[in-house]
Specification:
With 381 residues, the protein is an alpha+beta fold. It has ten helices and 27 strands. It folds into three domains: 92 residues; 146 residues, no CATH class; 113 residues, Rieske Iron-sulfur Protein.
Length: 381
């Protein structure tokens, strides 16, 4: 009986550690399940289960080690296997160990910049200060904490969803810190340091834990080439790569340009495929997805998102896009040089024109499976 208890402890360690990782990492079959609460429960109970398993192993070890012949090697082999599984799942396969945070965030003006100007960036302006965060860097780190215009910001990116989001990390008026804990429904999941709640990167919502239902405030941002961002904000500062992670950063443009065919981060070229690109817009509770291929053909789309008239415009670099609220349903825009022009006047890509200012609206380039999952009521333009 004590030998059976020993082996029960070994099996429990192996099965639990594997399940602990499988439910929250992009392993075969795991991301299609609605198993977030199971993953969170396993994570919360991990030390109780581990101590219980260790107690079983220690209690049964004296009897297990009394075996003779070739069988005497089985208990130490079992312990080694359990230790290796525990190490691999908690160190080698841990999300925050695979994708680590920068040791420091270095921002440079154009004069000191080393990022190629045709790379995609997430551009942010806070209190008049403009900054750019290249996808090749934030795609690896998943989140970068910074301070812009005196305010803390959390710049996040998930390459498996192709979602770039910028949030205020203030929760209950206090700055919160997060770590990458894994993935659910192919979207990055963050854990806050205060309550250990889990937050979804795609919408900044705490989806399980004590803070379930709380949302981070999303800040305005755009995804454009660095050249386009600097054309609008020549005084912007640009995030530079951390030399500690030089080998981890994307060297080529495959992901950014949609030529990658990798299982998790590759792109479908056919419209409305699972990993085809869309631009998603949410306004006043309504959501609409716009096919990227159609946007490339038309360049400017005047549409309605629920009751909100919007214009979605793609620059001639076929990479930089902008969205604004239209003044009314009758106003329609078209490109004229570098300006969006309507019968009422011309507007720059910062939304400013001689006759007024257009209200920018967040637009997200995502894989269709991501937008559809996290905006289940979305329409399709």
């Amino acid at each position: 009986m004590r030998r059976l208890i020993f082996w029960a402890g070994i099996v429990l360690v192996i099965c639990f550690e594997f399940a602990h990782v499988w439910f929250i990492m992009p392993l075969p079959g795991s991301q299609r399940l609605r198993s977030l609460d199971v993953a969170y429960a396993l994570h919360g109970a991990r030390w109780v289960v581990r101590l219980f398993a260790l107690a079983l192993v220690v209690y049964g070890a004296p009897a297990a080690w009394q075996l003779r012949g070739w069988r005497r090697w089985m208990p130490p082999i079992g312990v080694i296997v359990a230790a290796v599984v525990a190490y691999m799942t908690n160190v080698q396969m841990a999300a925050d160990q695979i994708f680590r945070q920068p040791t420091r965030v270095v921002m440079q003006p154009v004069a000191g910049n080393t990022v190629a100007q045709d790379r995609l960036v997430v551009g942010v302006v806070v209190n008049g200060q403009a900054r750019a965060y290249p996808l090749q860097y934030i795609g690896y780190h998943h989140q970068v904490r910074d301070t812009i215009g005196g305010e803390p910001v959390l710049v996040s990116y998930c390459t498996v969803c192709r979602t770039g989001r910028v949030f205020s990390p203030l929760v209950d008026g206090r700055p919160e810190t997060f770590r990458l804990v894994g993935m659910d429904q192919f979207n990055a999941m963050f854990e806050d340091a205060t309550t250990k709640s889990w937050w979804r990167q795609a919408n900044g919502e705490a989806v399980t834990g004590p803070r379930r239902g709380v949302r981070l405030r999303e800040l305005p941002s755009v995804q454009v080439t660095l050249a386009q961002w600097l054309a609008i904000h020549p005084d912007a500062r640009i995030m530079q790569g951390d030399t500690t992670f030089a080998e981890e950063y994307a060297k080529d443009y495959a992901f950014e340009r949609g030529t990658s065919r990798k299982t998790l981060t590759g792109t479908d070229t056919v419209s409305w495929g699972e990993k085809a690109w869309v631009v998603g817009i949410t306004a006043r509770g309504a959501s609409v997805a716009f096919d990227w291929n159609r946007l490339k053909r038309e360049r400017v789309i005047n549409a309605m998102v629920g009751t909100t008239p919007v214009v979605l415009a793609l620059r001639d670099d076929t990479a930089s896009f902008f969205a604004f609220e239209r003044p009314d349903t009758a106003t329609r825009f078209a490109w004229r040089g570098d300006s969006l022009v309507s019968a009422q006047g011309a507007y720059g890509l910062d939304g400013r024109g001689a006759t007024g200012v257009l209200t920018p609206i967040n637009a997200s380039q995502e894989f269709w499976h991501s937008w559809r999952t996290f905006q289940p009521g979305t329409g399709r333009y």
